[in-house]
From TrEMBL:
One GO biological process term: phosphorelay signal transduction system
SUPFAM superfamilies per record: C-terminal effector domain of the bipartite response regulators, CheY-like
Matches recorded under CDD domains: LuxR_C_like (cd06170), REC_NarL-like (cd17535)
Domain of life from the UniProt record: Bacteria
Listed name of the protein: DNA-binding NarL/FixJ family response regulator
Keyword set includes Signal: no
GO molecular function, one term: DNA binding
Stretches assigned to the HTH luxR-type domain: 148-213
Residue ranges occupied by any Response regulatory domain in the UniProt entry: 3-119
Annotated positions of the 4-aspartylphosphate modification: 54
């Protein structure tokens, strides 16, 4: 069972998300919080598999709460609930170690896929927001971004396959099963991909996979 913590100051949003998650018998909302500080406290006490966190909240905002949860409860994956027009917040969340970005107005199936991906150690980006996240990366990292795109062509065929599946949100174990590799070999490929693309984590690599066209925006399935 995947335990989820909902952190959002809007009761109607929490109710909607809870209803969608309730359609999956393997996902359970174990706690809800209406502000960031309460969310951090509940993450510490409940140790959920995934924390779904809104960005804009009074008091401790979602970015601060996400970063604190990552520090205090490293076993909990963090997915940010966002809306269009908040790219600068998404970039800051990326820097804070968020594992996924989901649109409140997106397809409900994306929410379920995203929660599962983050719970299993993968990364998930709503296809509609992936390109905007990449475009929102700040100017100071533009050189790294260009260098990463150049290096993408230098990845081996197997590394591109791994990157495509990583970009679709699969964990190392799932990638291994899909490509008939042991998990240790997948980890080695992922480390090499990070180094060649100058990506600091799975989310940055996933963003580049979307930008490079390795993941279909329509279906979020790797080509």
């Amino acid at each position: 069972m995947i335990g989820v913590l909902l952190v959002d100051d809007e009761a109607m949003v929490r109710a909607g998300v809870r209803s969608i998650l309730g359609n999956d018998p393997e996902i359970e909302v174990v706690a809800e919080a209406s502000d960031g500080r309460e969310g951090v406290d509940l993450a510490w006490s409940h140790r959920p598999d995934v924390a779904l966190i809104d960005i804009r909240m009074p008091g401790m905002n979602g970015l601060e709460a996400a970063a604190e949860i990552r520090r205090a409860v490293p076993g909990t994956g963090v997915a940010i609930l966002t809306t269009f027009g908040e790219e600068e917040y998404v970039v800051r969340a990326l820097d804070g170690g968020a594992d996924g970005f989901l649109l409140k107005t997106g397809d409900p199936r994306e929410l379920l896929l995203g929660v599962r991906a983050v719970a299993e150690g993968g990364a998930f980006l709503s296809p509609k927001v992936a390109r905007r996240v990449l475009n929102g990366l700040n100017h100071e990292r533009s050189t790294d971004r260009l260098r990463a795109r150049e290096r993408l062509a230098q990845l081996t065929a197997r590394e591109r396959e791994v990157l495509a599946l990583l970009g679709a949100g699969l964990s190392n174990g799932e990638i291994g099963r899909r490509l008939f590799m042991v998990e240790g070999t997948v980890k080695g490929h992922v480390s090499t991909i990070f180094r060649r693309l100058d990506a600091r984590n799975r989310v940055e690599a996933a963003v580049l996979a979307h930008e490079a066209g390795l993941v279909s925006p329509a279906s979020d399935n790797p080509r």
